[in-house]
Design brief:
It contains 4 helices and 2 strands, in the order αβααβα. By secondary structure, it is of the alpha+beta class. It starts with a helix and ends in a 7-residue tail after the last helix.
């Protein structure tokens, strides 16, 4: 969103929805729909702005991605050597063994 605002400020009228790859079906449901339950009622106000960007202004699009294809998992999970190699390949990182 910041990037799109920056481009419009320098008179580059480039607007394209920001793709957000997400592997959690629960998070995707919460982002798209106003669901109130004991698990969601404590969500902070700043996340409502994200929901508004998705549903009202259409500046963010949610793309479902399988957990096995989610590159961000490499920054948050422990991998075996083979999975680590796959992760670095997806990031286009190469190293000598």
């Amino acid at each position: 969103m910041w990037y799109n605002n920056f481009l419009s400020e320098i008179s580059m009228n480039f607007w394209k929805p920001i793709p957000l790859n997400i592997d959690s079906m629960g998070a995707q449901a919460i982002a798209k729909n106003h669901v109130v339950s004991k698990h969601t009622k404590q969500i902070q106000i700043k996340y409502y702005a994200t929901r508004e960007q998705i549903n009202v202004f259409k500046t963010i699009t949610l793309n479902r991605v399988r957990s096995t294809d989610n590159i961000a998992d490499g920054f948050t999970k422990i991998f075996t050597a083979d999975k680590h190699k796959d992760f670095t390949d997806k990031l286009k990182l190469f190293y000598k063994r």
